[in-house]
Write a structure and sequence with these properties.
The structure holds 3 protein chains of 3 kinds. Chain A is of the alpha/beta class. Chain A is built from 12 helices and 12 strands. Chain A has helices at 16-30, 49-58, 109-127, 137-147, 185-192, 212-224, 240-249, 265-272, 286-289, 303-315, 317-333, 338-346; strands at residues 2-9, 34-41, 67-70, 83-87, 131-134, 152-153, 172-176, 200-204, 231-234, 252-254, 277-280, 296-299. In chain A, helix 5 runs parallel beside helix 6, helix 5 packs across helix 10 and helix 10 (303-315) crosses helix 11 (317-333). The longest helix of chain A has 19 residues, at 109-127. Helix content of chain B is 38%, strand content 17%. Chain B folds into 2 domains: 2-154, Rossmann fold, CATH 3.40.50.2000; 172-331, 3-Layer(aba) Sandwich (Rossmann fold), CATH 3.40.50.2000. Chain B has a 6-stranded parallel β-sheet. In chain B, helix 8 (263-270) links the parallel strand 10 and strand 11. Chain C is α/β, with parallel strands linked by helices. In chain C, 46% of the residues lie in helices and 13% in strands. Chain C has 17 helices and 13 strands. Chain C has helices at residues 14-26, 60-64, 77-89, 102-112, 116-140, 158-162, 173-180, 229-237, 256-268, 283-292, 309-316, 327-330, 348-357, 359-376, 379-412, 420-433, 441-444, and strands spanning 2-6, 31-36, 49-51, 68-73, 93-96, 167-170, 187-189, 215-220, 246-251, 275-279, 295-298, 321-324, 338-340. Classes of the chains: A alpha/beta, B alpha/beta, C alpha/beta. The interface between A and B is medium-sized, with 30 and 26 residues.
């Protein structure tokens, strides 16, 4: 088939959606389809969005390709007789961030009307889809609540899970994610300070631009708790081979960002390496992947309770292994595979 | 700098402009910039769609970049405070093709109205660019003639890093590239029947249609040219091209009225081989000097045959002309360094 | 909400008077600053007042301090010139006090800008060939000037005042309809407030030269042909002996030429002792005449105003008013005034006779007039409605702003409003953002 994958981008800003788009294109091509990836730059500044939404309606792709897969908002506004939307998040200022201090639309009559226009546009675009998917249950629920549409959950897989392998259950827990406050690596350090076993912690990842103070804070935290010989922080870009090694040798993976929509690639990477995942009740999407006690632990975001979980694995590596294996099963169960994704998207 | 390269897009079709955009992005990155190619869908039938896409481009925004470099209509309508054009072509149907059978737009009140709109739009928005470069004198000439705008010619360099070189001056004229009616390979094949020397012809490239291929094959058959003409009807690899150039006597590139000089011309000179072209081939004029870098002759089979024969008879002259061609390329600084320097100024 | 209220403030301006009353009420509901451009004798206002020397002096920072600007417009250039210029660069709500704004633009282009060509272009742009022809006649100087004849209602030019506005307020359904025919943004009809000073007059009936048995009939305002005074005089002439009981006072300035015609009408009807032309009178005299009036006559044909302050004032005084059944006057509640069909002026004398004979009738209609006027033409009601409209306008502005930006691009490309693309894009905008069927956005793309 000839397939157009359309998405929006903030030029030169890395984000999770670039991976899903590139990997999807890659997988489609590997299966013999002809793919055209179209990233459209979009400015999210107020009040520029309405103009751009209209632009999306005027660009005509309707006579090209057998299918159009729209990923990041507002790509779902493009018109196509065979439009499949794989929705990953709303323009949050108009939705769940409205009414919070993070909204970037002013709370004025103009701002309200602007927001309503955005929602109205989304309602039009989403309803034109022949199939509507979301990348998580969280997003599915938002689509239902705010736009009155029903989406099927379609979880995004890793590009190459086979690259990961299991070298055994070592003595360190791995927290592999961007270094930024809401990922809460600091909570892992705090929790470690309450552990009773000598379990170690490895924190690795790139600092977000402007997050250097946060990285400093992490180091200071380690100092404060006297954990220098148990915590390693690698605040840099980790090349793929090194990353795979880190996952291969860890005891388990920690991933408990605050309230994220999706379970996050680190969770998938963990299970690809057959490792369990430690997350918290307020992490959001991880709670769709992890079942407490089965393929990982879900604890309240309390350092002592997290420490308890950390100690459990250290004390019982067999448990870690069992949970890691269960993770592999869980992934199959939830259809987090490219075969499944292809089948659903191209049906 | 953070740069977005703006080009049009017809999904699933990749042509010279697409390759150029990708090459430019890659070169920008090499020079330490950040570059992203953005392709904007463009539909021109029915004609109302042209206007809708012009408007769509005006409504787009490109945030967080220092500069946009735009290639074509209507992608060059996208607003940005720092916009540079490397104009490959405007919507020619409204300009030099209007009044010919290629005008594309109907000569009806509606068609004329849309044509007016395009001209008005170009006049209104092209000056937004801080600088306009074009890919050839032809394109610049049209821009000046129809829109009164000045521009600087910036030649597109070769896209690949292939090492062109000269191995020897062999006995065949090499003619690579897409085979179709506009490129006129058929004319060269027809010319071969008038050749008096043992000069040969190698046509290598994918025929666009079955008819194009048939025309050449049947001409070869009917005139018993099997020993003199080789027709390789397929996509050829870089290695094959470099090799065939390297061992050729010279190159023939005789398209009808093209804007640009064609990469083949550059490839030939880099291989130190002279180029035979025609007086009506268009943009190649900028790189072809009759008698000094090759031949510029009338598009007639006998005249072409004579040109090919003469090269065969005087290989030293062929060498001199080939080297003069290389000189010319160097003197015109047709390099990516030049391009990047100008586009990022 | 922070509102910048632009208005004339001169004591000679009726609009200034209305504004003063409205902003007093509006200030109870919002943060209002009154902005004006005048020297000399200006009214007091109960809200903070900012005076600027000219439109140019009103800088962007000042304007951006407010959530919304509201501009008051009337047909008199000196009072509204600077307001007009500010409104051009900073869209806000335009309050159209007058339907016909032709005199304003005539004065602007001929005297102020000395650019008659611009006047022609405007007429052409708004009214096509007929506009061009009419402008030609004006420029050639042949015949009476367009804005001094009834023809002017065909070329009102209010369209130019409201072009690009964020919203328009009209004071009659009549004007609202005209506005909606050419303006695609929000439009609201709000009844013009008026308050009348109903204290006892300083001058008695005797002071005005009225005998006890006489009924005073009053017509107030600039004496123009469209006030139909000749018709009134002729109607009075047909009353026969009843005219002995009538004094008809006309209070308002009149041009010498027209005065001649009216004098002739008086003479031919032998009403020299009945009709009095008093010209422009001081406030207290006017107040006295209105207080003592038995009947008010307030005819208009054709209508040039958006609404009529004078009739409202007369109604607030509790007087029976005879009006022409057209424009704003048609919208007055039946029974609160006496409406005469424009084509039945010849029967005016019948209604006059009835009113003259029947004091109870006069009193009933007068009471109904007062009751209706007191509830309808109130400043506090106006303030509430215009504030409500301000919210509506602000909510409409993102999409209208988009329509305007699209229109700008269409104009830069030289797109004619009739092109299919315009319709297609307008339709797309409506369908996408409002879910409504194509509305009025096409109009925005007209120049």
């Amino acid at each position: 088939m000839k397939i157009i994958v359309a998405t929006s981008v903030a030029p030169f800003v890395e984000g999770g959606s670039t991976f899903i788009v590139d990997w999807l294109g890659n997988q489609l091509q590997a299966r013999g389809h002809e793919v055209e990836i179209l990233p459209f730059p979009v400015s999210e500044s107020y009040p520029e969005l309405l103009d751009q939404l209209l632009a999306f309606r005027l660009m005509d792709l309707s006579s090209h390709g057998d299918r159009l897969i729209a990923i990041r908002t507002p790509a779902h506004l493009l018109k196509h007789p065979n439009k499949v939307v794989w929705f990953i998040h709303h323009y949050r200022s108009a939705y769940d961030l409205w009414g919070t201090r993070y909204q970037n639309i002013p709370e004025t009559p103009e701002g309200s009307a602007y927001r309503e226009a955005i929602i109205a546009a989304d309602n039009v675009g989403l309803r034109e889809a022949v199939k509507l998917f979301s990348n998580s249950a969280v997003v599915r629920d938002r689509l239902s609540k705010f736009n009155g549409v029903t989406a099927d959950v379609l979880y995004p897989p890793l590009l190459s899970p086979d690259q990961y392998y299991n070298a055994g259950y070592g003595d360190y827990l791995l927290y592999f994610a961007r270094l930024t406050h809401h990922k809460r690596q600091w909570l892992a350090i705090e929790a470690l300070s309450s552990t009773r076993t000598p379990v170690k912690l490895m924190i690795a990842g790139c600092a977000d631009p402007g997050a250097e103070p946060y990285v400093d804070d992490l180091f200071r935290l380690v100092e404060r708790y006297g954990l220098k010989n148990r915590v390693t922080i690698l605040p840099r870009w980790i090349p793929e081979p090194e990353k795979i090694e880190l996952f291969a040798g860890c005891l388990g993976v920690i991933y408990f960002p605050f309230d994220e929509d999706s379970y996050g690639y680190p969770s998938l990477e963990a299970h690809a390496a057959r490792k369990p995942v430690l997350t918290t009740t307020d992490s959001g999407g991880t709670n769709e992947l992890i079942v407490n006690g089965r393929n990982g632990f879900i604890t309240p975001a309390d350092p002592e309770l997290i420490a308890h979980a950390m100690d459990e694995w250290y004390g019982d590596k067999e448990l870690a292994r069992t949970m890691g294996e269960a993770g592999v099963e869980r992934i199959e169960e939830l259809g987090i595979t490219w075969d499944n994704v292809m089948e659903r998207l191209l049906a | 700098m953070k740069i977005v390269v703006l080009n049009n897009c017809v999904p699933f079709l990749r042509g010279g402009a697409e390759h150029l955009a990708d090459a430019l992005a890659a070169k920008l990155v090499e020079h330490g910039h950040k570059a992203l190619v953005v392709r904007i869908p463009f539909r021109w039938a029915p004609p109302e769609k042209i206007v809708e896409h012009m408007l769509a481009c005006r409504l787009m925004r490109v945030p967080g970049v220092d500069r946009v470099i735009a290639f074509k209509f209507p992608a060059y309508y996208v607003p940005h405070p720092d916009k540079v054009l490397w104009l490959l072509h405007q919507f020619r149907q409204a300009y030099d093709l209007w009044g010919t059978r290629f005008q594309g737009l109907a000569d009806s009140p509606e068609g004329r109205e849309i044509r007016e709109l395009i001209i008005r739009g170009d006049n209104s928005y092209l000056p937004e660019a801080r600088k306009i470069y074009t890919n050839s004198e032809v394109t610049s000439g049209r821009l000046k003639k129809f829109n009164g705008l000045d521009s600087e010619v910036l030649y597109p360099p070769l896209l690949t890093h292939s090492q062109y070189s000269c191995a020897e001056y062999g006995d065949y004229i090499f003619c690579p590239g897409r085979v179709n009616a506009t490129k006129r390979q058929l004319l060269l094949v027809q010319a071969m029947q008038h050749c008096r020397t043992r000069v040969k012809l190698l046509v290598a490239g994918c025929a666009e249609t079955r008819e194009d291929a048939e025309a050449i094959e049947s001409t070869i058959r009917k005139n018993g040219l099997e020993k003199k003409v080789q027709f390789v009807n397929r996509f050829i690899s870089e290695e094959e091209k470099v090799d065939w150039f390297g061992r050729s006597l010279g190159c023939a590139y005789i398209p009808y009225d093209e804007d640009s000089y064609g990469y083949v011309t550059l490839e030939s000179y880099l291989s130190r081989k002279p180029v035979i072209t025609c007086s009506d081939s268009g943009g190649i004029e900028a790189l072809a000097r009759e008698g000094s870098t090759g031949r510029v002759v009338a598009p007639e089979p006998r005249v072409l045959a004579e040109a090919m024969d003469q090269l065969f008879l005087d290989k030293q002259k062929a060498q001199r002309m080939g080297e003069a061609g290389l000189e010319l390329v160097h003197s015109l600084r047709i390099t990516w360094d030049t391009v990047i320097e100008k586009l990022t100024k | 909400m922070k509102i910048a209220w632009f208005t004339p403030l001169s004591k000679k301006s009726a609009i200034a008077r209305a504004s003063a009353g409205i902003v007093t009420e509006l200030a109870k509901l919002a943060d209002v600053n009154l902005i004006h451009f005048e020297n000399g004798d200006v009214r007091d206002a109960s809200v903070p007042v900012k005076r600027f020397a000219s439109a140019a002096a009103v800088d962007e920072r000042t304007l951006n301090h407010y959530d919304l600007a509201i501009y008051n417009f009337g047909n008199h250039l000196p009072f509204h010139r600077e307001i007009f210029l500010v409104s051009r660069r900073h869209p806000g709500i335009c309050i159209l006090h007058d339907f016909v704004m032709h005199h304003f633009f005539a004065a602007y282009y001929f005297e102020d800008q000395r650019n008659p060509a611009a006047y022609s272009l405007l007429m052409e742009r708004l009214y096509g060939e007929e506009g061009t022809a009419a402008a030609q006649r004006v420029l050639s100087g042949r015949g009476p000037r367009l804005w001094e004849t009834d023809e002017v209602v065909r070329f009102p030019l209010f369209e130019e005042v409201i072009r690009g506005a964020a919203g328009v307020v009209a004071h009659s359904g009549f004007l609202k309809k005209h506005v909606e025919a050419c303006f695609a943004g929000p439009v609201r009809r709000i009844s013009l407030p008026y308050d009348a000073d109903r204290s006892a007059p300083h001058l008695s009936r005797g002071d005005l030269g009225l005998e006890d048995h006489q009924v005073l009939i009053v017509t107030v305002g600039h004496v123009n042909p469209n006030k139909r005074i000749e018709a009134v005089i002729d109607a009075l002439g047909r009353l026969g002996p009843a005219t002995g009981r009538v004094v008809y006072a006309i209070l308002g300035p009149c041009s010498p030429e027209y005065q001649e015609a009216l004098n002739a009408a008086v003479r031919r009807n032998h009403l020299e002792r009945v009709v009095r032309f008093l010209g422009q009178v001081p406030d207290d005299v006017l107040h006295a005449y209105l207080s003592h009036a038995g009947i008010c006559i307030n005819l208009r044909y054709p209508v040039t105003e958006g609404a009529s302050a004078s009739v409202i004032e007369e109604m607030l005084f509790g007087k029976p008013v005879i009006v022409t059944d057209t424009g704003f006057y048609s919208e007055l509640m039946d029974g609160s005034v006496i409406k005469i069909h424009p084509e039945r002026e010849s029967e005016l004398h019948i209604d006059l006779a009835r009113l003259l004979e029947d004091q109870a009738l006069r009193e009933n209609v007068g009471a109904a007039a007062r009751f209706y006027a007191e509830s309808e033409f109130r400043a506090d009601r106006y303030a509430r409605e215009i504030l409500d409209f301000a919210w509506e306008v602000r909510r409409a502005s993102p999409l209208l702003g988009l329509a305007d930006r699209v229109a700008v691009e269409c104009n830069r490309m030289g797109m004619a409003a009739s092109m299919k693309t315009v319709e297609a894009v307008a339709h797309e905008m409506s369908a996408l953002f409002t879910g409504e069927a194509l509305g009025r956005d096409t109009h925005r793309t007209r120049r």
